[in-house]
Amino acid sequence: MNMNTRINSIECDVLVVGGGSAGLWAAIRAADFTNRVTLVDKGIVASSGISPLIHFVFAPVPEQDVMPAMQEIVEGATYLTDQVKLEILLREMGDRFREMEAWGVPFERDGSGKLVTQKRMGQKFTTCAFVNGRKMVEKMKERAVRQGVNIVERVMVTDLLTSDGQLPTGGRVTGAVGFHTVTGQRFIFRAKAVVVTTGLIGAKLHILYSDNVTGDGQAMALRAGADLAGMEFGMHPVFSIWARKFSTGGQAEYVRAGAKVVNKLGENIVEKYAPDKKSPFLPRETLCFAAAKETLEGRGPIFIDMRHLDDETLKLMRQVLPSAMKAFDEVGIDLRRDRVETTPFIPYWNGAGDGGVKTGLWGESNVKGLYAAGVAAHSAGTHSFSVLIAQPYAFVSGHRAGEGAAKYTRVIPGEVEINNVQVERLLSEVFAPLRREGGHTPDQAYHALNKVIVPLESSFIKNEERIRATLAEIRRVQHEEIPRLSARDTHGLVKANEVKNFALLAEATFACALVRQESRLCHLREEFPYRDDVNWLQWIVIRLDKKGLGVRMEPVPLDKYPIKPKARLVLPVAIQLNARKTSAA
After folding, report:
1. Would you list the DSSP string of 295-313?
2. What are phi and psi of 428, to 5 degrees?
3. Which of 383, 457, 475, 532 is 20 to 30 A removed from 74 (C-alpha atoms)?
4. Which residues of 319-338 are buried (b: 16+ CB within 10 A; e: fewer)?
5. Largest CA distance in the chain
6. Three-class SS of residue 460?
7. Angle 415-417-420 from CA coordinates, rounded to 5°
8. What integer pLDDT is reported at residue 102 of this predicted model?
């Protein structure tokens, strides 16, 4: 095919990669300090990614409730929280809400002007506020344009440029390269600082949300030598496949309304696994893992049973989840008559910032000039609250990263010099699939990866043997299939570069999972069925160097934090594949 070989060169002080709420906040805030800010997105800003799809966010916490809310979140995260970051988040999110409302973002308020809020299942001191995600990012885009931000759309940024021309680098970031996803035009961005805000890591299962968020920013940061943290906690499960016929959300709302989750024997698995038998309740993630365990032990499939619900409740469900209920109608499922098979799976990783680029308080990474925000960054470690906190974290971390990056550019004199040899090498690698014929397609590479990553015994409940086998196959795909990828057009070229990123992050995720020898939150190890607070109140950090991926542990500095566990214990987790004691106990 004819490709546009002309190179478009853009100079700026701050380059923001990713146009969701974190990226928009970073660009808007950076523009308060410099008039040379560029925001680039692989899709159309305010139309692509996850931010336009949200309908509720974690609500601002009143000043008097900050410490009780912190206590609730830290305990829910089993003390793996960065409490300094968490307190900043809780204290600054109200300011971000007020600024966004001044821009016209329509957070729902009642007749008296108060935010319309609702407690989600399990919350005591925190609530959620309602907002139309698409209108939110549209108003933010309008604000960015008024601030003078240069918005570049439909351009996939593939790699960072560095002062020494090396990846990983011993120098600093000097910009990035990429290409237009329709025309194939090459792009060079010269920048004094780059803020990565590319969102979650999706496995292109064509189920749920957006299919173009594949961890591009995290992968380019990792290749540049940036630390990533918490990757083993990124695999968030959902119930979204119904009757093996269609996919939609809503499982939590059905359970809230009184639906039962039962195995093929008719046993209510909520009651079976809930620690409080008098008031049985399981968070969504724990419920998904319970369903996985039941299935792996031969008591699947799992069903949602709403046959006992009254007409009024089902009517309410039609108001709350109209598209989901319409789907049941279209495939001939009568909820008054039929149990509905439901399948837990993991459609994306680190969708709430539980794993990502390790940053300081102003979004800075360990690589000079490289910043990160939103769920591309390792968040405060809020875990069981992460899905709710993801958007406010994007607001606060984006605001801070934009400011941090803009202020950093002041110490970089003159214009940015780029290494032309590095530019040529990187662009040659990016476009290589277009020059190949008869190689592997990106879809084949994804299929090979997902065959070992998606199954319940790999994604939900792991053991050393299966992790090592998964890592071996990921590395085989990286070494044998990805170097032979071919593409017929720019669409295929995008997918080829995405699968390269996804494979690298899959390797990092399972490498971290191999190191953590305990079960905690959404990380379950079959041979270590206990949460070990004696040995594993640590963050796992991974970095790419000339020798490959290297992992280290960093103890959570609980001695410096206000909220501490009463005792360091070894505790059985809510879901165990084998309830036997281990040497750790």
Report:
1. HHTT---EEEE-TTS-HHH
2. -65, -40
3. 457
4. eebeebbebbeeeebebeeb
5. 72
6. coil
7. 150
8. 96
- 185 CB neighbour count, 10 Å cutoff: 18
State the Cα–Cα distance between residues 38 and 32, nearest whole angstrom. 13
Q: How far is CA 482 from CA 450, 503, 570, in A?
A: 14, 9, 42
User: What are the residue ranges spanned by the domains of the chain?
Assistant: 7-233+350-421, 237-347
Domains 7-233+350-421 and 237-347 belong to one CATH topology: no
* Unique residue bearing structure tokens 């968020």: 213
- Per-10-residue mean pLDDT of the chain, 585 residues long, equals 77 97 98 98 91 85 92 92 95 96 93 82 75 94 98 98 97 98 97 96 74 92 97 85 82 82 93 75 82 92 94 86 87 93 84 86 98 92 76 95 98 92 97 92 94 92 96 97 96 96 96 96 92 96 95 96 94 66 33
- Return the amino acid letter for 337: R
Any idea what DSSP says for residue 483?
Answer: G
Structural fold of domain 237-347: Flavocytochrome C3; Chain A, domain 1 (3.90.700)
Q: Count CB-CB contacts under 10 A for residue 284.
A: 20
Q: What is the pLDDT of residues 391-404, one digit of tens each?
A: 999 999 999 999 99
* Residue 40, helix vs strand vs coil: strand
What span, in angstroms and rounded, lies between the C-alpha atoms of 58 and 128?
A: 4
Tell me if the domain spanning 7-233+350-421 has CATH number 3.50.50.60: yes
- Residue 426: closest CA among 240, 248, 237, 188: 188
Strands (E), 50-172: 56-58, 117-118, 128-130, 150-153, 155-162
DSSP category for residue 126: -
CA pair distance 137, 45, nearest whole angstrom = 8
Q: How far is CA 368 from the centre of its chain?
A: 24
